[in-house]
Amino acid sequence: MSEVNLEAFLNTHGQLLTAIDGLSEEQVKWKQAPEVWSVQEVVSHLVDHSFVISFRIRDILAATTAQLPAFNQDAWVGGQHSNEGQLSDILDAFHAILEYNSLLVGRLSEEELAKTGVNFKGETVSIKTIIQGFSKHVQGHLSQIERIKEAAVAV
């Protein structure tokens, strides 16, 4: 399993905890504008994305030929009233899904990690690419959290 960095994948939870450390409930729910996500909504989106990659990985392993699903991230975050929940619950869900997926990925052979499916863009993606892409995706949202925190201070 040398090709997939499980440590980087698992470390995304710790990085989220560091990014939000010291923020009050009011700060994690603060929105610069109604259409812009709060810190809590960003974290909620990452849970949603975890669900989606969980399905994609399992669908590839099951050798189905259906196109891997996309999702409307703004509609998902808004539709579930993400900013009305508790950040601790959202973080617990993120951590649990991350741990569960890492157990699965840790059992996969290099051959299984190389299995592919076709994403919603028509691109062929491997399980390895999905895992690496998720870790990279989290990094982008960590930057977004920092921008939200900076914007909140400027107000």
TrEMBL record:
It comes from the Bacteria. Residues 12-145 form the DinB-like domain. Coiled coil: none annotated. This is DinB family protein. It comes from Paenibacillus dokdonensis. The lineage of its organism: Bacteria, Bacillati, Bacillota, Bacilli, Bacillales.
